[in-house]
Amino acid sequence: MIQNNINPYLISPLEFGFGYTMVEDRKFFGDYLYHYSLKTGFPTLTAIYPPVIIYLFSFIKSPIQLTLFYLLLETILILLLCLYINKLSKNKSKNYKLLYLWYLHPLVLYEGYLNKHYDLLIGLFILASIVFYNDFKNKIHTLFFALAIHFKGYAIIYLPFFKKSRWNILLLWSFIEILSYLWYPSRFLKKSSINTFINQWEFNNGLFTTLRIYLETIYPFEQSLLYTRYIFLTLFFILFFISFYYWYKNKIDQFIFLLITLIFFICSPVANPWYFLMSVPFFINYSNNYKHHFFLSILSFYYLFYISYDPLNSLLIISFISWFILSISFFSKNIKRLNPLVH
Quick check: 7 and 193 in contact, CB under 8 A? Predict the structure, then answer.
């Protein structure tokens, strides 16, 4: 669309493809484009991704080129980080371990290079931010974390992990978050793609679906969906503030680590495995504790049930397994203290 001077924030892929079918001398190309646009995610919506990603992808002609682009960018950044660690880092062994675990992490290889999700870049920027943050006073970490937020605003939810939270800062940050969700990017449009997307959006986990189905026996569909969203958003924010209360009290133990995981992976509105790439740098930073593998094992069940013929049952089974694994971690003995990211 960009190559044809079409603004992807004003015209949806389906409208673009259908428009070409109306042009007589481009009818064959238009039919192909129309059918291709039907296969895109949410083809009736205009672009919801940041402009920098839209423009980067407009220069890439094939999946192979996209893989090479990811590999080139990741390799360059890893080499620069290695150079920094070797020359200036105060925590050489820990930072080298972070790079090694990231570069060979199965989720990075699978979602980044096989499924081509650009969340690979966001996780990579967060990784670089943690490497610099591990050296205490090095402020370069803010640059890389800003890049992560610029590529996908969802990454801002990790901001308080980089500093011991003060309530005034946390409340201000939460206020900015709420404003961002309410109005971005509807500055020039009466109704934005984000607004449209939210109207069609459900929490991507089995507990949400189960509760919605139950409420449908009492209320009409639209009401039951609305009530379920309110319940889950309330649960999300309660758990969110509980977690940062413990973080504020500097009680960074196995319980709070599990609680943070619960929020971002199960109670979060986005439970797609590729979003988990943003959490990987934090997990490997705590990799001295073996229990982080419990959370990675949950991903296996997500992938397993993606191929199911009955998505509803799959969500319910996945949800049960996820909570079961978390329960094992909660109540297991010999809980070890974690080495905190915050110094």
Answer: no
